[in-house]
Design brief:
The chain is an alpha+beta fold and 127 residues long. It has helices at 17-26, 29-37, 44-51, 55-66, 114-119; strands spanning 10-13, 71-76, 84-89, 93-99, 102-108. It is elongated, with a radius of gyration of 15 Å.
Length: 127
């Protein structure tokens, strides 16, 4: 389920399982709510609360979204050692193209960087 944020734009085609997962996620209202709430890094429980959905549902939806180029997983570092996974929307824009070669999904990678956010946490450094 772990996926690092993209450095550049991502493109998936109908040969790519991420395309099916992306369309499945975008067709799901809970996934869209999670994407809307994930403008800043949040844990699954924070996303569940923000979206007013059950925690078990949030875990399933985050797992689905993690298979797409839309959501990135990071780590929330805790000075006490209680680190937690956190998620942030990893796309600012997406476009679907229908061509002779099939369907292509292009995702603009201007999403937030969860690692940079984690390093901005008080008491955490890269040293």
């Amino acid at each position: 389920m772990k996926r690092t944020p993209r450095a550049n734009d991502a493109t998936t085609t109908d040969d790519d399982a991420a395309l099916d997962a992306t369309f499945e996620a975008l067709a799901d209202g809970d996934c869209r709510a999670i994407l809307a709430a994930a403008t800043t890094p949040k844990t699954t429980s924070e996303l569940a609360e923000a979206c007013d959905i059950a925690l078990s549902t949030a875990y399933r939806k985050v797992e689905l979204l993690s298979e797409t180029p839309l959501l990135a997983e990071g780590v929330r570092f805790d000075p006490d050692g209680d680190h937690a996974a956190e998620y942030v929307r990893d796309a600012a824009d997406a476009a679907v193209e229908l061509g002779d070669d099939g369907v292509t999904l292009s995702v603009d990678g201007d999403g937030a960087d969860p690692l940079a956010s984690a390093l901005d946490t008080p008491g955490v450094s890269a040293d």
